[in-house]
Amino acid sequence: MIFSSITFLYFFLPFVLVLNFIVRGKGRNLFLFLVSVLFYAWGEPKFVFLMLAEIVFCFFMTGLKGKIFYALSVIVPFGLLFFFKFSDTFPIGISFYTFQLVSYCIDVHRGRVERQRNLITLAAYVTLFPQLVAGPIVRYSDVEGVLVGGSREKSDRDVSFEYGVMRFVLGLGKKVLLANVLGEFVAEVSGLPGRGLLASWCYAVAVALQIYFDFSGYSDMAIGLGAMLGFKFPENFRYPFISGSIGEFWRRWHITLGAWFRDYVYIPMGGSRVGFVRWVFNVLVVWAFTGLWHGAEWNFVLWGLMFAGLLVFEKIVRRGCERIGGGFGDGAVAVGVLISVVRHVYVLWFVIVSFLIFHNTDLGRAVLDVASLVNCGGLVTKDANVLMVSEFMVRNRWVVLAVGIVAATPLPAMVWGRFCEWILRYKCGRGVLQVVESFGVVGILGICTAYIIDGSFNPFLYFRF
Question: Residue ranges of the domains in the chain?
């Protein structure tokens, strides 16, 4: 079951929300666990027992004293994760719930959180359906208060039901109206025997935007669902395409995954508090694991190591600039602007290349896609008919490409914020704003519903991780 399906939107979700307002007290965690298992079993009935077995195993391991039990609580879930990755078997969401279980076991061992003595409560945390199959990676400490206390934090706007609905519908719009449409364009172009330079670049941009809107849309929906149920899930994306460095990009993209590797792998290995050679080793290990977390294919390994190399390169350049120091006199502002533009171009180039590698499990095809961006390689063609078809596809999709580019920046949020500030100056402003928000939610939901009913292209890319 995926969020952008009629079954989920108009049957499962209303059923869960109604019962959520009825069930209170100690029975709420059992209710959340049962509906989450139902959600997972809908798509992966045979693997639900694997997930439940891992939960029971970690529950008992954290209750036993000794380093051997702590080690087993980490090694066994990771062992199962990599077994299924390398055996080319994909239980949905195993990467995400494995990281949640392992982080819980480590935090209990380090004394960061109290061991949960109620198996149902722990199971409710791991299986919590909004974030179970594609994140964000929620740590036990993020939701412990609500699971143990049994009620939402009413003072926090980000866990209000109204906020949850708006955030969910916004994510649904990202997924259905942008990611799906961009995915159709990607499928169309990749099916051609060749393409021109313009189509190659539009294809590459569409790949990057499809992955972004697919995953950030899912994260928005997960955060919205969490808020409807009384949970505050961590943010997972903050406009990564405006980054001025690869390091900044990874502080804005899949934030919870980066934070997980930072806290449970990178820092325990010494982080940046070591010599340069050891730091390079730490970075390589973290990014090799990041690639393997996505899959055992070589494209994911290359993708991870490419980012490791870029991060090392950036640190070397930064050190060099610090040693040179100095200023640029009267031209400092102009030079600063030029450097900023160059940095953004550099980031966008390597991000686009990385997504082409990420998108293609066939490394040969990835090389051809990248080569086509500089107008060379086997995909570049001079066949007039093929070029005409590829150019027609670009003309047919240029609007969604333009909307996607703008929507991936903070501009829409800035415009909406200014509008809210302006309208709230008037006495009737709050009422008008509520009407606009309500019509916007209903409108986006209606358009998405029509698209889902009419269309057949509706995958979730990150389900395979």
Answer: 6-151, 166-406
